[in-house]
Structures are given as structure tokens and as C-alpha cells.
Amino acid sequence: LDFYFYYLDRCPENYEGDHCQWPICGIHGRVNVITRTCECYSNFAPPFCQDCLPRFWGEKCSHSLLLSTDARDLDFFPFCRIIFVSFSLFLIYISKKPFLYKV
């Protein structure tokens, strides 16, 4: 790779350095100096960390597709528990999953 780019006037897109040996990873990754490849941050795809991994989208690749078909995950009514705190105060605890009590 280094020999091929040595005689070019300028580096190809996404590469930099005296011999075009360093990839440009942008703000969504960093260069591994041993392998000379980009190590992308969460949900960004190699080789240059510019696009999202499959099933992710958005500016920060933080949105993903819903892949669950379990009816419990699609429930619109979460589990509610009323916890007695004092005579005049009740605490309502809302969670997606039921409580597990250890005996």
C-alpha cells in the first residue's frame, strides 16, 4: 500500500500522511497506529467511520430498528406498583418489567 501511493501527487480520499499511510477516521473514530485502520465509535461502520452500521440510523447512529416480536416488549401499559411510603404519601413505581422478589 505504501509503495503504490508514494508516487502520487496527492493521497486518495480518506487517506493522509507523507506516504498516504494513515486513514482519516473523522470525529466518529480513531486510528489504530499498529494496524493503520480506523476503530469506529459506537454504531459507526468501518472502514472510515462515516456511515452507520446496519440497522442503525440518524446523525449519531443512535437510532435503531425494532427487531423484537415479543409481545411483552410491545406492551403499552407498563407494570405499576404503588409503594406505601408514609400515611400521606404514596410512591408509584413504573417499570417495563415485573418485580422479581427473592425469598
UniProtKB/TrEMBL annotation:
Q: Which domain of life is it from?
A: Eukaryota
- Please tell me whether the keyword Membrane is annotated for this protein: yes
Keywords attached to this entry: Membrane, Transmembrane, Transmembrane helix
The membrane-spanning stretches of this chain are 76-94
Q: By what name is this protein known?
A: EGF-like domain-containing protein
Q: Which organism is it from?
A: Dracunculus medinensis
